[in-house]
Amino acid sequence: MKWEHALKDYQHYLKIERGLSANTITNYSFDVEKLVLWLEEHEVTANPISISEEQVQQFIYAIAKKVNGRSQARIISGLRGFFNYLVFEDYRKTNPLELIEAPKTGRKLPDTLSTSEIDALIAAIDLSKPEGERNRAILETLYGCGLRVSEVINLRLSDLFFEEGFIKVTGKGNKSRFVPIAGITQKYIGIYRDQIRSHLDIKKGHEDTLFLNRRGRQLTRAMIFTIIKQLSEICGISKKISPHTFRHSFATHLLENGADLRAIQQMLGHESITTTEIYVHLDRSHLRKVVEEFHPRRR
Questions:
Q1: Which residue ranges does the record assign to the Core-binding (CB) domain (predicted)?
Q2: What is the domain partition of the chain in residue ranges?
């Protein structure tokens, strides 16, 4: 079995069986391609079925000298998934990474913004320019709904259900969820939609896209990163922030104010509650308050 055939089958499995997005499939494929490239460079003759644990281990040792622990752990995880698939399909009897441990990387806690910092960033937007109203609506949506940047740029007019108080969000793996949207966020989206967007020369194929650039096309991820970076410089915020910082702040502020972790999980679109639990580590005082309020021995 050739590597390209095995990888193509694996990509098909990830898309059809697991419903993963194209970006995720590409990232998983990179891990396998790194192994194949290393085999070719070192003239190691091995196919997906014959490659041994020792050969894979040599590859892991080699990349450990070039990448940090977090990247190394991700590559090991990606390769383990690939070989698990081959075992599942009876191409192999064992997974050559079964006994290989990923390095302990620790859990990196996300940066968050205070409400005053978020207010300052939004206040720094120049509303005299047409894109100002758009940028305010974007930041309010990022923070008010806890969306990923990819979810914001793909938001459509037909996803807005303002009367019901929700927006429809398409997340990872093309999975949809409904997220509550506050009246203030609806207000700023409405101003942009009715007063700015309606006057744009909207290009074909972008008629339903909510947030557009000046040329009437969908915004890029990079553009939103740039908008936030420029605003943070104006405000003198030294933290390294990105669109995802608003998502982290959304979850953290909800938790600090007593929101249920399961509800936050649903709004963020996390498949596992374990992913959402990282926010508990940001503010352990929340756990103490829960015990003080709800435990029968609190008095």
A1: 1-87
A2: 3-88, 115-291
Does this model's pTM top 0.70? no
Per-residue pLDDT at 77: 86
Report the pLDDT value the prediction gives residue 232, as an integer from 0 to 100. Answer: 94
Q: What pLDDT score does 62 carry? A: 87
270 is catalytic: yes
* Centroid of chain to Cα 61: 29
3-88 is classed in which CATH architecture? Orthogonal Bundle (1.10)
Average pLDDT over residues 150-158: 94
Q: Which CATH number fits domain 115-291: 3.40.50.2020, 1.10.443.10, 1.10.1840.10, 2.170.150.40?
A: 1.10.443.10
Which one of 244, 248, 289, 299 is the catalytic residue? 244
Q: Residues 172, 177, 221, 286: which is the catalytic one?
A: 172
Q: Is 148 a catalytic residue?
A: yes
Reply yes or no on whether 248 is catalytic.
no
**Better-predicted residue by pLDDT, 15 or 111:** 15
What order of strands is seen across the sheet that includes strand 166-170? 160-161, 166-170, 176-180
Active-site annotation holder among 92, 136, 247, 253: 247
244 belongs to the catalytic site: yes
Predicted confidence (pLDDT) per residue in 11-33, tens digit: 998 888 888 888 888 888 998 99
CB atoms under 10 Å from CB of 273, counted, come to 11
Contact 139, 249 (CB under 8 A): no
